[in-house]
Amino acid sequence: MLNYCKDCVKTRVHDYRIKNIERVREYDRKRGALQHRREYGAEYRRQNREQHVKTSIRWAARNPEKRKAHVAVQRALKAGKLERKVCEVCAAQKVEAHHADYTQPLQVVWLCSKHHAELHKHERNKQRKQHDNTLRVKRTA
What we know:
Blueprint (H helix, E strand, L loop, with lengths): L5 H14 L1 H12 L2 H28 L1 H16 L16 E4 L8 E4 L1 H28 L1
Antiparallel strand pairs: 1-2
C-alpha cells in the first residue's frame, strides 16, 4: 500500500520522469533489450501483422492523396532525385518527410519523429481552435 491516491502517484511519477529523463530512457532501453521482451515483441508483431496490413490498406483507401505523396517521396529517394537531410530542428540523422502540401509531393521538410509528431500536434490544436471559434460564431448568430 502506497498511502497515496492514484492522481498523486501519477503526478509524482510524471515529475520524476521529467527530472530524470536520461536515466529513465537508459533504463527503458535496457529493459526493452531483455531477451524475453524482444521475443515477446517479435511474437506480437507476427500475430498482429495481418491486422496491421488491413489497417494500412484502409488508411490508403481513405487518404489517396497522402499515399500518392508518400510513394512519390519513396521513389524519388530511390532514384536519387530527392536527398534525405537531417532534422531541421535538432539535426538528428533519422528523419521523416513532412508534407505541408500534399499536392506538391516532393516539397518536404525533413524532421525526426519527435519533431514531426510535435508539428502535427500543433497543427491539430490549431484546427481545433479554429473549429471551436466557428462553433462560437454560429451559436451567437
